[in-house]
């Protein structure tokens, strides 16, 4: 390389660096301009509201955020998506979290987040919980349950299948060969608690693995999500779908022949709010207000009416609040709660086992 | 090679050395101006670094140094690679390789035949076929997969129509054959664009020369095909990269057929809890290695040759007249392709959007209820407005940057910068967008950047950059063909006749490539409008992109409303395309005769 080209090359490099810097500066100016426009108040005075960022997978979240903002005046921004992408986002952001409130189904993930010190501990909202609610509150109060569904409910078409199975062991009988479908726990958020719940009630990992291996031998179909499994039920590929209760009840509202039954025992699946441990004091205070609002009478009304075709079909855990009339009394459902601090940390290994052994 | 004013090249950097006249203020002004101009010219390269280099590097670093991004304990490890290369993921890697190569070969072959028929023969309905290619380009791959699924599943459409379960067809569709077909048919428009652009510039003279010297049809094809080599290789490379990185098909046909693909495995390692980013990153390295192999093959076969065929002496090609028999055979072939490629997904989307969202299916239950619901609820309009705005911004940026990148790619011996850019663009295609999006989070959400006051993550600006990373590679590839084809002589002629650089480029080069620029804009716009993975991970709080809204409907047990939204958006995009193409015909009729557009 001659001196002249070397100098030229160097000049170009400096130019590239300068241009890159310029681009970054311009783009970040756009970005910060936008965020300060929306949240400019916090600069004015300490204690003034900052935007509360809510990551939520609940069907009624938009209605809740709107009601909360109206009731408190706290500017609230929602990221509404499925549980999988939201948890991926939370984990990718781990070095520098941007969320204030995370609100998805299943306490196992929250237990794991708590053990990684990613959640605010010790917060108790001002609400009177019923017995089912108290059973799912963690000892260190690192997250707040807001309602209950169960998994896996047994969903079937009563016109085609008048006599559905009545126990988990029934599913292994030749009569149900090739007729059972469930979701892949590695893809569908609410399915891991079902898998873990079976492991737990059957006595441990080896018994649980034996159960699912036998199901596989009996022709188990594994689909991606509730929607896919329900579709397989409606098209007759399977006779029995093992999915989240709210999905089954919602299908039953649209098609009266679709029934939902509960084998002894099904695992309770709470919807849960967690607060970012790295949130500013102001945002943390707002997030706590949000959780309290959700459990208030007003918030429960929003939860029960915000998504009548899905997530609103839950059992309330606040005393004196009744579920949607489509739901049976929770007492009549044989539920069990599993310890999320035991099963949460095992989610990765159990899902990997399931993918490697049952799915592939 | 043309030196357009857009690219930093020898002329651009040499200009400051050409000597500036002495004299006070003017001297200072002239000394500053070249500097400013040089910086301005380097601006696109800075953007390439911001859009592609940093996020890709950020994502790839996670595999070897998870601790850097709070994703593990090790500062340096190779364990994720060992994990990928054992068990079913190793199998998925081989499957992806086979599927990518098969789809790329098939798509290139179909595209050459299609391009020849529409460009060089009097095939009937040429406008319709081109419109259908657009429709293919627009439909998301999962839609095509869903269409096939609904057709062949038990109790599916074929089952009910024929009264017999199409078991054999199902086992073909839910497996390698179905996966390769869907990916290839989605790759055909890209391959077609690459091939057509070159074919249009390739005058009739080469064909005539071969025929004059006694060459038969076969001999003529043997003369012409090597001249198309850059387009064939570009088509192969782009379809290969698009296929190995496609997730829509991996999640539907491949997963139901128990035929694991690497993208499915990658997505799963992120979507599951706890997410295993280092493992996904290691798979990203392997996907890149696959694409690197394709790129290497392309480079070796094209090295040291020139493919400039479009010059001032190029004569427009004459179409071969097809006789009745040939016309019928050609129409049957083209028609079959489009029925299998576009008819099936259209059927799937239409069936899903017309059917009620649940309950028994009967003729009476078909209806427009889903469309009415979607249009009345208004939740779609705000999402559509937001996504359309961002898609328009992204498309404009993609065209400008794509032209710069396309020029750099087409430049013979483009130097290290050109090669690096080439690699980066293919990397951006090869990495599934969900991984690219997590790369954006890792890179632009680093705590030290926040402490410097640079908070890009969580803003619309970063979402646009993420979209750009998706749109730029195809734009650059599509534009590199037409831009590389324009001979220097045209520009020099304009310069000799006294035009200034910008005016010379606008007068001599722009009319030749305007159609391609419009194509590239439309593709970027439509591709961004329904983009899902980047939207999911990078959407700023409080804003909902269209694809997220649609997916929420599809997954929230409201398949009908989601499908209706998709149908409305695709139809709206087709109307937009029609308007833009109409405007182009009206205002720039010259572009029409040269471009693969009208």
UniProtKB/TrEMBL annotation, chain B:
Record carries keyword Translocase: no
Chief location bin: membrane
Cellular component annotations (GO), alphabetically ordered: plasma membrane
Transmembrane segments: 42-62, 97-117, 129-152, 172-199, 219-241, 277-297, 328-352, 386-409, 421-442, 502-530, 563-588
Keyword Cell inner membrane: yes
UniProt-annotated location(s): Cell inner membrane; Cell membrane
GO biological process per UniProt: transmembrane transport
Annotated segments matching region Disordered: 1-26
Alphabetical list of InterPro entries matching this protein: MetI-like (IPR000515), MetI-like_sf (IPR035906)
Keywords in alphabetical order: Cell inner membrane, Cell membrane, Membrane, Transmembrane, Transmembrane helix, Transport
Domain ABC transmembrane type-1 residue range list: 93-298, 384-580
PANTHER family referenced in this protein's UniProt entry, alphabetically: INNER MEMBRANE ABC TRANSPORTER PERMEASE PROTEIN YDCV
Family: Belongs to the binding-protein-dependent transport system permease family.
Name used for this protein in its record: ABC transmembrane type-1 domain-containing protein
Species of the source: Streptacidiphilus pinicola
High-level lineage: Bacteria, Bacillati, Actinomycetota, Actinomycetes, Kitasatosporales
């Amino acid at each position: 390389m001659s001196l002249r080209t070397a100098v030229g090359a160097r000049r170009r490099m400096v130019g590239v660096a300068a241009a890159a810097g310029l681009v970054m500066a311009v783009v970040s100016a756009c970005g910060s301009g936008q965020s300060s426009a929306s949240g400019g108040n916090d600069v004015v005075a300490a204690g003034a509201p900052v935007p509360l960022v809510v990551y939520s997978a609940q069907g009624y979240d938009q209605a809740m955020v709107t009601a909360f903002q109206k009731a408190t005046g706290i500017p609230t921004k929602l990221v509404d998506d499925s549980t999988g992408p939201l948890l991926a986002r939370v984990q990718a952001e781990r070095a520098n979290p941007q969320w204030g409130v995370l609100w998805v189904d299943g306490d196992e993930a929250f237990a794991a987040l708590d053990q990684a010190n990613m959640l605010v501990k010790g917060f108790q909202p001002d609400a009177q919980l019923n017995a089912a609610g108290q059973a799912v509150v963690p000892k260190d109060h690192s997250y707040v349950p807001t309602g209950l569904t169960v998994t896996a409910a047994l969903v079937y078409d009563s016109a085609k299948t008048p006599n559905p199975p009545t126990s988990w062991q029934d599913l292994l009988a030749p009569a149900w060969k090739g007729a059972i479908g469930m979701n892949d726990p590695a893809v569908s958020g609410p399915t891991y608690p079902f898998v873990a719940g079976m492991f737990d009630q059957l006595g441990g990992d080896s018994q649980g693995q034996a159960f699912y291996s036998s199901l596989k031998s009996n022709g188990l179909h594994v689909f991606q999500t509730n929607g896919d499994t329900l579709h397989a039920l409606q098209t007759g590929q399977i006779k029995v779908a093992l999915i989240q209760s709210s999905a089954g009840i919602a299908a039953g509202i649209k098609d009266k022949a679709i029934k939902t039954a509960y084998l002894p025992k099904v695992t309770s699946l709470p919807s849960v709010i967690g607060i970012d441990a790295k949130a500013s004091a102001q945002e943390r205070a707002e997030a706590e207000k949000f959780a309290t609002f959700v459990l208030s009478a007003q918030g429960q009304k929003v939860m029960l009416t915000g998504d009548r075709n899905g997530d609103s079909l839950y059992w309330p855990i606040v005393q004196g609040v009744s579920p949607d009339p489509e739901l049976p009394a929770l007492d009549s459902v044989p539920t069990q709660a599993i310890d999320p601090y035991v099963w949460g940390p095992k989610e990765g290994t159990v899902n990997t086992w399931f993918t490697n052994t049952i799915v592939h | 090679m043309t030196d357009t004013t857009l690219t930093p090249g020898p002329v651009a950097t040499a200009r400051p050395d050409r000597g500036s006249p002495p004299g006070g203020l003017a001297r200072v002004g002239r000394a500053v101006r070249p500097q400013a101009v040089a910086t301005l010219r380097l601006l696109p390269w800075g953007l390439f670094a911001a859009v592609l280099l940093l996020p890709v590097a950020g994502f790839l670093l996670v595999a070897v140094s998870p601790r850097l991004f709070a994703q593990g304990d090790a500062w340096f490890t190779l364990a994720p690679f060992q994990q990928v290369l054992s068990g079913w993921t190793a199998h998925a890697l081989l499957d992806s390789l086979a599927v990518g190569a098969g789809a790329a070969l098939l798509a290139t072959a179909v595209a050459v035949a299609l391009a020849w028929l529409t460009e060089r023969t009097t095939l009937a309905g040429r406008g319709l076929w081109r419109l259908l290619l657009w429709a293919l380009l627009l439909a998301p791959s999962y839609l095509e997969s869903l269409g096939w699924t609904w057709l062949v599943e038990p109790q599916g459409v074929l089952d009910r129509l024929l009264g017999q379960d199409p078991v054999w067809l199902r086992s073909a569709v839910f497996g390698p054959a179905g996966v390769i077909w869907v990916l290839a048919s989605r790759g055909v428009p890209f391959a077609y664009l690459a091939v057509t652009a070159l074919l249009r510039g390739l005058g009739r003279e080469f064909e005539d020369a071969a025929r004059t010297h006694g060459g038969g049809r076969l001999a003529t094809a043997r003369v012409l095909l090597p001249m198309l080599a850059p387009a064939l290789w570009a088509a192969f490379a782009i379809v290969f990269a698009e296929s190995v990185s496609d997730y829509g098909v991996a999640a539907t046909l491949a997963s139901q057929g128990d035929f694991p693909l690497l993208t499915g495995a990658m997505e799963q390692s992120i979507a599951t809890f706890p997410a295993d980013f280092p493992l996904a990153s290691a798979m990203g390295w392997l996907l890149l290695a696959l694409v690197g192999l394709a790129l290497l093959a392309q480079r070796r076969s094209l090295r040291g040759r020139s493919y400039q065929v479009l010059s001032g002496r190029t004569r427009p090609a004459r179409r071969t007249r097809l006789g009745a028999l040939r016309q019928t055979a050609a129409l049957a072939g083209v028609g079959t392709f489009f029925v299998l490629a576009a008819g099936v997904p259209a059927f799937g989307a239409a069936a899903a959007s017309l059917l009620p969202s649940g309950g028994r299916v009967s003729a009476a239950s078909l209806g427009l209820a889903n469309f009415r619901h979607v249009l009345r609820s208004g939740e779609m309009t705000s999402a559509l407005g937001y996504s359309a705005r961002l898609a328009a911004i992204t498309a404009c940026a993609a065209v400008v940057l794509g032209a710069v990148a396309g020029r750099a790619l087409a430049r013979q011996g483009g130097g290290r910068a050109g090669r690096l850019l080439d690699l980066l663009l293919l990397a951006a295609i090869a990495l599934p967008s969900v991984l690219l999006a997590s790369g954006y989070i890792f890179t632009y959400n680093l705590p030290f950047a926040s402490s410097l006051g640079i908070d890009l993550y969580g803003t619309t600006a970063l979402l646009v950059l993420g979209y750009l990373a998706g749109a730029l590679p195809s734009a650059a590839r599509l534009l590199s063909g037409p831009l590389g084809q324009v001979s220097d002589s045209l520009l020099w002629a304009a310069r000799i006749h006294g035009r200034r650089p910008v005016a010379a480029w606008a007068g001599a080069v722009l009319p030749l490539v305007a159609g391609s620029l419009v194509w590239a804009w439309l593709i970027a716009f439509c591709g961004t409008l329904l983009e899902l993975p980047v939207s999911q991970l990078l959407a700023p709080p409080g804003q909902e992109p269209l694809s997220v809204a649609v997916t929420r409907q599809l997954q929230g047990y409201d398949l009908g409303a989601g499908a209706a939204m998709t149908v409305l958006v695709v139809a709206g995009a087709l109307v937009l395309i029609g308007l833009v193409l109409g405007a182009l015909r009206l205002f720039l009729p010259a572009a029409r005769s040269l471009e693969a557009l009208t």
